[in-house]
Design brief:
By secondary structure, the chain is mostly helical. It has a domain of 229 residues: MetI-like fold, CATH 1.10.3720. The protein is 66% helix and 0% strand. The protein is built from 16 helices and no strands. Helix 6 crosses helix 10 and helix 6 runs antiparallel to helix 13. The chain is globular and about 90 Å long. It is found in: Cell inner membrane; Cell membrane.
Amino acid sequence: MAAYLLRRLLLIIPTLIGIMLVSFAIIQFAPGGPVEQILAKLSGVDVSATSRIGGASSDLSGGGLRPGGGDQSSVPARYRGAQGLDPQFIKQLEAQFGFDKPAPERFGLMIWNFARFDFGKSYFRDTPVLKLIAEKLPVSMSLGLWMTLLTYAISIPLGIRKALKDGSAFDVWTSAVIVIGYAIPGFLFAILLIVLFAGGSFFDWFPLRGLWSDNWANLPWYGKALDYMWHLALPLTAMAIGAFTTTTLLTKNSFLDEIRKQYVMTARMKGLDDRQVLYGHVFRNAMLILIAGFPGAFIHAFFTGALLIETIFSLDGLGLLGFESVVNRDYAVVFATLYIFSLLGLVVNLISDLTYTWVDPRIDFDRREV
């Protein structure tokens, strides 16, 4: 196990570099850039993520930023709308964002800084990237963490029950319900919930903005907990409408596969009742795939950004931050979040493998090629 763990840890380094290299190369061909964003704003054109993109802003987005090329003695043609601006000012902007250096040098410097967890500041918010992520994290954590726990708490018992009642009326109608729920877009269901229960056209039972009320700090601890869950009720319901299908059916199929194996028949022949067979023998083997995947789902829940849900319910989380960063070409935030999430994903995959050995000691990864 130690040799396998060491190999996997060493493999994280080239994998991370590969992910960042491909993303960095794609960005070089993307139209626009942070310098163009600033020049567009100085020209009186709103190019933010929340603005309506019209003809003027599309004119400014033509031609990507290519540091190191073109005539440096005059305003490059790619900066449309920058006529009248001092060419020296444009050079200073390029130097400020690091675009005065060749692409390979910029990539190497980025990897060196990221390896030391130095992610710099956002281009347009003048805030350290880590601080910006930390500010948005509570919203995404609230949605992702509760959604993950809720999904497992409902899907696993339901999947086990469906496996035991395979082919019955209960199995059929519950399958129909979760499949229909899976087919309903979460954002459309969110709009329906707002219309029905958040002051849209019928009832005004739930709030429509934020994670807590204005007087939250003055509430007792139980009042704070109730207020917090009151604000999360509609967003979680909208996200949950299709969240149970995959885990429920995976649980059902896993238990069915184990129930039909020979060792279950042997256990029953020894006189064990169904409950002893289910929880003494079947449960551990059937839950292997779900338990091993739980660390990944749990960690992923902390960094899940549901863009549409966050926007509809006015929740400023990582989903909205990522969308605005991409549209506004805030590369400092884009690459930093990509690096952090990729690193977490690789580490979590390793933790999932280790969880396999914890659940079933018979699994030996030392005999397995990475």
